[in-house]
Write a structure and sequence with these properties.
- The chain is of the alpha+beta class.
- The longest helix is centred in the N-terminal third of the chain and has 20 residues.
- The two termini are 49 Å apart.
- The chain is built from 16 helices and 16 strands.
- The protein folds into two domains: 241 residues, BirA Bifunctional Protein, domain 2; 94 residues, Anticodon-binding domain (Rossmann fold, 3-Layer(aba) Sandwich), CATH 3.40.50.
- A hairpin with a 5-residue loop joins strand 15 and strand 16.
- The strands form three sheets. Strands 1-5-6-11-10-9-7-8 form an eight-stranded mixed β-sheet. A five-stranded mixed β-sheet has the order 13-12-14-15-16, sandwiched between helices.
- It binds one RNA strand of 75 nucleotides through helix 3, strand 6, strand 10, strand 11 and helix 12.
Length: 417
RNA sequence: GUGGAUGUAGCUCAAUGGCAGAGCCCUGGACUGUGGCUCCAGUGGUUGCGGGUUCGAGCCCCGUCAUCCACCCCA
């Protein structure tokens, strides 16, 4: 038997109802905020991610699926969506000349990590990106949209963490302070953090090693090193959240894994995903568009892990697309009539199913029950000779005989009432 | 990438180194044309894969693959 590669999974119908519920909820939230869909490529030149995310990030340094095309150019399966959206936005004059633009996307991402619960090599994300303003309102809007989606699908016990990591100029000062603080303490740091101190000091605050965690308590905080405009911006974002009853926790240690973030960063976290605690995250990235060769354009966005959200709503009852009718027949001429009836029901938008094989009524009814059909239509010998069918409402068990011609009309009315 | 645990029927799991089983599911019957409940019967297995030890391996050993957990990282 052929297997699928590790961390790459099939999604069967029993999960699809839930899946569509999550995406449907997201789409409604996006539409409510006037975000429109963009479909970006799954495969990009490797440089899109190297330049976009930064060479020091784990994603770029060790988690990308990279291959060469026939011309020897390096291609990479997208590990995230933002870099692609930015690249597309910069390339498309139709959109980047607008004063602002709102996009959302949805699809598979690829990272060559060791698979685990809530961590796949091919996983799906939806996300939104806003281009064109540094107004804190838009930071709020991104967060509010994701919050609406989390509440809409019924994720329980999550918290929203918010921080500001400032703009590059305030970060320069802060990083200097941070380095000063840690410089004298290298003996107490883990191996990774000693390296981070040189390559990406902000990540020191993300370390979970016991020794390093203890040192964080005395570390200087970015909040104390924000310049006036970043401070004002951050306060305004929090103000918007509070005014709109979106609960959040300020987390001064929240730094994101990608280099492109400026000012606002946020994460939606839960304790129910084991080692993986975030199911959605995002932030502002005011310099990325310029970095991709576009004109300076502030931007903010987020992405959410669909499989992780699915895990979080596992026990929840989701009403799947119901089967309207199941046709039970006695074979022969009755089957012919059943097929004809099915055809006209389907044409009228009524979903129905039947089995062509000659099975007992009992087993056909069992099937109807298992498929959760709302109605069962019986065409047996009596019905077929009189051109009628018996309509049984499965929930109550009551049934009545009507003519086959009236069937479509009858079901259309009953299903809509 | 590092460390640990686990792989037996479609699912959840049993089985001192000695006949591979149960419950659920599925199929059929009791009920010649009516689902869910009950009872009865039946189908279903290269014990993840490959080697080794042994008279004999699901069980012990080695390898491999996969899954899970933790680390790491992240959605």
């Amino acid at each position: 038997m052929l297997a699928n590669p590790p961390g790459i999974e099939d999604i069967f119908p029993d999960r699809i109802d839930r899946w569509n519920f999550v995406i449907g909820t997201a789409r409604r939230a996006f539409a409510a905020h006037n975000f429109r869909e963009i479909v970006i490529p799954v495969l990009e030149y490797t440089d899109v991610f190297v330049r976009g995310l930064g060479t020091d990030t784990d994603i770029v340094s060790k988690e990308m699926f990279t291959l060469e095309d026939r011309g020897g150019r390096s291609l990479t399966l997208r590990p995230e969506g933002t870099a692609s959206v930015v690249r597309a936005y910069v390339a498309n004059g139709e959109y980047n000349r607008l004063s602002s633009a709102k996009f959302f996307y949805c699809g598979p991402m690829f990272r060559a990590e060791r698979p685990q619960k809530g961590r796949l090599r091919q996983f799906n994300q939806f996300g939104a990106e806003f281009f064109g303003s540094s107004d804190p309102y838009y930071d709020y809007e991104s967060i509010a949209m994701m919050d609406m989606i989390a509440k809409g699908v019924g994720v329980a016990d999550y918290s929203l963490l918010v921080n500001s990591i400032g703009c590059p100029s305030c970060r320069v000062n802060y990083v200097k302070e941070l380095k000063n603080y840690y410089q004298g303490l290298t003996g107490q740091l883990c191996e990774d953090c000693v390296r981070r101190l040189q390559s990406n000091p902000l990540r020191l605050l993300d370390c979970k090693q016991e020794g390093c965690v203890a040192l964080k308590a005395g570390a200087p905080l970015i909040q104390d090193h924000l310049d006036e405009s970043c401070k004002t911006h951050h306060a305004a974002v929090k103000e918007y959240l509070s005014l709109n009853a979106i609960a959040f926790k300020e987390d001064p240690l929240l730094v994101r894994g990608l280099d492109y973030y400026t000012r606002t960063t946020f994460e939606f976290v839960t304790t129910r995903l084991g080692g993986q605690n975030a199911f959605a995250a995002g932030g502002r990235y005011d310099n990325l568009v310029e970095q991709f060769g576009g004109k300076p354009t502030p931007a903010v966005g987020f992405a959410a892990g669909i499989e992780r959200m699915l895990l979080l709503i596992e026990g929840q009852e989701i009403g799947g697309a119901p089967l309207h009718a199941y046709i039970v027949h006695s074979g022969g001429g009755a089957l012919a009539q059943a097929v004809r009836l099915a055809s006209s029901l389907r044409a009228a938008g009524i979903s129905c199913d039947l089995e062509p094989g000659s099975k007992g009524f009992k087993s056909q009814f069992r099937k109807a029950d298992r498929e959760r059909a709302s109605f069962t239509l019986v065409i047996g010998e009596e019905e077929s000779s009189s051109g009628t069918c018996t309509v049984k409402r499965m929930a109550t068990g009551e049934q009545e005989r009507i003519s086959q011609e009236k069937c479509v009309e009858f079901l259309t009315e009953t299903l809509h009432s």
